[in-house]
Amino acid sequence: MTSKRVDNYLGKEGALSSGVEGFEFRHQQMDMAVAVEGAFDNAKHLIVEAGTGTGKSLAYLIPAILWAVENNKKVVISTYTKTLQHQILNHDIPFLRDKLGIAFRYALCMGNENYLSLRRLKRSAQAGLFTQSDEENQWEGIFNWAGETETGFRSDLPFEVLPQVWEEVGRQKDLCLGKNCETHSSCFYFKARKKWFGAHLLIVNHHLFFANVANAGAVLPAFDAVVFDEAQNLEEAATQFLGLEISNSSLIYFLDRLHNPRTRRGLLTRIDHDSVPHLRKLVMAARQAADVFFNQLLEEYGTNDRVLRFYKPPVLDNGLYVPLEALREALKSLEGGLHSEEDRVDASSAAERCFEFNNALSAILNQHMRGYVYWLEITPRKRFHRVVLRGVPIHVAEELHAQVFEKIDRIVMTSATLTTSKGFGFIKERIGYQPDEELSLDAPFNYPSQAMLYVPADLPEPGDEAGIYVEGISNRCRELVEASGGKTFILFTSYALLNQVYEKLDGLRFPLIRQGEMPTVQMIKKFKEKPSVIFGTNSFWQGVDIPGDALQSVIITKLPFDVPKEPLTEARIEELRRQHIDPFRHYQIPRAIIQLKQGFGRLIRKKTDTGVVSILDSRISRRGYGKQFIASLPPCPVVTDLEAVRNFFALNMSGQHGNEQ
Known about the structure:
Distance between the termini: 51 Å
Largest sheet: 7 strands, parallel
Strand content: 5-15%
Radius of gyration: 27 Å
CATH topology of the largest domain: Rossmann fold
CATH superfamily of the largest domain: P-loop containing nucleotide triphosphate hydrolases
Helix content: 40-55%
CATH class of the largest domain: Alpha Beta
CATH architecture of the largest domain: 3-Layer(aba) Sandwich
Strand order of the largest sheet: 3-4-2-5-10-1-11
Number of strands: 18
Number of helices: 28
């Protein structure tokens, strides 16, 4: 079969192009849809870079729906950001259900911890778990909401729920009673799962996809094809998922939920059994051992905010192993003597957690896992120092190849940013993907007339004296914000620089919105209301979509190189050196190019958008590699003079006001 089916919808005479007002035929979208259709029909692996504005989600959703419905198959659509997931669920799928004239079924698949547990909610009412009034109020809010919600999704709550409240009422896989639960027939999670099994499209995020891989396919229904959108984040998502972690806060929190002597709450206050007093003593012993162990880390490595890599196993006395093992054994024997299945499940789950803590801690301290990098993070908080030990795989290509690419016949990788130096070599090598077909599509925008790139060569470099550098960057940001009349994103690679520039720009005549002071959704809402300036880090470089007049200037303060001393980056660099590969050329530059392309992509989102991207890192002008960065961006005039930027804004703003009248 050729492209006849997608042509019926996306072709020049197709149902959408000719029958939907405002929908325009885009040959890039059509080319992508044909390629995706071919991959599904012929069981192929495809990689597609589709520039911003291609309409790539429709270009894979339409062939996915047609193929799944015709063949009664399931297709997984996996995204990295919630923003894209929301767009697919709330905009693209309703649009296609309305316009395609095809009855297809879809389901949003969330990790089980995202669902309210009706049994645990009911039980928490009897236990009187919460002492703080804000916790009590939230619990009441959840109780009332439980009677109205159809999904039971944590994200559908009308307020931001406190983690400690959700911990008591959210679903937890190892505490589930399954069919023996009195609320099984009304359970949000099982009702959702029923929908998953009947759906043609399963909408997931990369994290849940890898949870399914790690659990040998037990999380999601069996599926026949997968589309990874935002595929440039696949390596990071897999790395995070395969990692190990143990922290003082998670361990103490776990022990508190067993028995908290201060509040007299926890599992061991609810259960009536002869061994409970002994178990409480074991919890106290584990808590004391945890205090000693983590204090030992702080004494050894200091209390400052820091990240410290362990190049070899640290010489530390693991005093936690024995008390946690004793607690695990006592919980297992308690489980055997309990009559209530609820209590048995709680005891069994707690015993399993002791085992997991001990496993992770031993693996990190003894550096058991080959090909992993290990480190310590210390973060001072108001009441205590958060201490985290981590271990993650240095590369995941072999694992991904064996667990994902070899096992699934039909795979589409896509994003607006997958190529570096006009090719897919970098991403293919990083994730171990060997596609049958490759396709690179330009954005359907007229960048030469819609956009301008400003690269001043007169600013201090990031390596220069901190005070001079921050002053130089801040002053230029101020001039650019004035030139654009607000309507600006300033993108940073670190919170430290973000805060320094924010302080310097305080007093500008536009509202300044700093990341971390409110949820992203609220930041964007506020930004759209009147000309403003957003100060953002990582999450604002990608996934944020503000078409139209509200955003006209994107300022990139620094080329987005990974910090070379960050443990994972450092270990990846060492690994490449061992293979006699130049890590700067083959890893650091391509990674930074992909991130820079993401940042640039925030600006022009539709054919009527105009604006300027400013890169205030003068290394782009002074270093040989700067040309690679500029060559990877969409073609538009490149200027070094601020006056040219002012003229561009003056010209385009007067044009806009003319259009409005």
